[in-house]
Amino acid sequence: MARPESASLARSAEHPKFGTLRVAPYGRDHVLIDVRGPTVVTSLRAALLHQQPTLRPRPGWSSVLVRASDSATVLELVMSLDDGSDLQSEAQDAAHHHLIDTSYDGDDLETVARLTDLTVDAVINAHSSATYYVVFLGFTRAFAYLDGLDPRLGAVPRLATPRVRVPAGSIGIAAGQTGIYPMASPGGWHLLGHTDAVLFDTSRTPPSLLAPGDTVQFRAV
Amino acid sequence: MTATIEVLAPGALTLVEDHGRDLAEWGVARSGAADRRALALANRLTGNPTNAAGLECLLGGVSLRFPEGAIVAVTGAPCQVTATGRALDMNRAHHLAVGAVLTMGLATSGLRTYMSVRGGIDVEPVLGSRSRDVLAMIGPEPLTVGTTLPIGSEVDGEAWFEFISPFPMAVPVTVRVAPGPRTDWFDSSALELLVTSEYTVRGESDRTGIRFMGVPLPRRSGDLASEPTLPGSVQVPPDGQPIVLGPDAGVSGGYPVIAAVLDDDLDLLGQVRPGDAVRFRWA
């Protein structure tokens, strides 16, 4: 077969609730829906789960992957989703709020304070006073991608040299995001502290403590 | 009493694998056999359900003792197979006597040899599967000397004791791809190059992904916000050298995905070695 014409593969549309959408095939059996950002991801995922659970929507930071072979059909379906407030409240009903007890004793607190021109206390305060949204579970072992980092902490980059081993439960920030390492692994984020909460337990169904759509707060202990 | 397998020599890396998990939305990789077709054939030969757990042996060099005997079949990457010194054909079932020692030698081509035992390997499932995920470290530990594996009793039919001709492995390996979601990150020459050049498998390849070396695919600079990925996603990092995600890859990533290998052709990539040439073609 001739090479695909890239221009013809993706379709864009404007949705009254979800805003600008882009729908593109992802291999033969999946379709990726691009949206503006994490807030839209959460409501689009909830609406798709409600309307067509067989699509098995998988959120990303600003996209949702569905199991379907035809992107035109997916676009049609998404456009037919109305902005009924019942969908929104349904998603909120299913969501949990998690208070994560956090020891702010991370190795990079001083560095983060320096990078942000804040005191260590102000860094802790900025991190622990925000409410975060779980946008999606990804990478490996259900790493939760959280939206809602205080913009004052947004300028902290990844480490120039990643650590070889970061213990499970470590809480870090980098590149405008915060997260909890669900397992010991190499890691490139600046570490603010740690929690004893068990993020991932294979004997639990579902295995992840946090689910997409949940809210999270870090409580200094 | 449960029949068992005793590991005398584990080879370079021998894993228990079945057909994997279906929990991607929970951040868990599919995992499962890198060559599912070879494992399914081995299971058919021993009369198991096709998704029963077997052993995936990287490059062979494995020695196993069966204290209670068993019915086994070996498929996948060809190697010399013996039972207590006697040569056995691959790709058919065999009776092993009480106390027999099964050896699988160095694979002469391909990468992964599979062994199925009638009744399946009955380790405790984790998240609905007996597969080892080497990145998330979920599922049964890799085999070591002295590991004892329980043999299960779930069977699906009779074992097949006649030789079945195995799947042919053409060289260079050609796999079919369908367009990915980020073709707009590449100019048309990249879409052309992907399917007209030959790519060589690099040594840094494993169950999380196969890294290739060849003509770099020109792409836009920058990174995407992390998006869902799939086994078979063809990611292109800034250096332009494609990576095809494997069964144990993380389920999200930020490199643009130019194409995705068809699910049926992933089995072929489960058998390529460092140095092998691979061609991609549009499905």
Structure description:
- The complex is a heterodimer of chains A (221) and B (283).
- Helix content of chain A is 25%, strand content 32%.
- Chain A has six helices and 14 strands.
- In chain A, the strands form four sheets. A five-stranded antiparallel sheet of chain A has the order 1-2-3-5-4, covered by helices on one side. Chain A has a four-stranded mixed sheet with strand order 6-14-7-8. A three-stranded antiparallel sheet of chain A has the order 11-10-13.
- In chain A, helix 2 (38-51) packs across helix 4 and helix 5 crosses helix 6 (120-129).
- The N and C termini of chain A lie far apart (61 Å).
- The model of chain A has no long low-confidence stretch (mean pLDDT 91).
- Chain B has two domains: 4-150, no CATH class; 173-282, Cyclophilin-like (Cyclophilin).
- In chain B, 8% of the residues lie in helices and 31% in strands.
- Chain B is built from three helices and 20 strands.
- In chain B, the strands form four sheets. In chain B, strands 12-19-16-17-14-13-20 form a seven-stranded mixed β-barrel. A six-stranded antiparallel sheet of chain B has the order 7-6-9-4-1-11, with no helix packed on it.
- The radius of gyration of chain B is 19 Å and the shape is elongated.
Task: Supply database-style keywords.
heterodimer, A: 221 residues, alpha+beta, five-stranded antiparallel β-sheet, four-stranded mixed β-sheet, 6 helices, 14 strands, elongated, B: 283 residues, mainly beta, Cyclophilin, 2 domains, seven-stranded mixed barrel, six-stranded antiparallel β-sheet, 8% helix
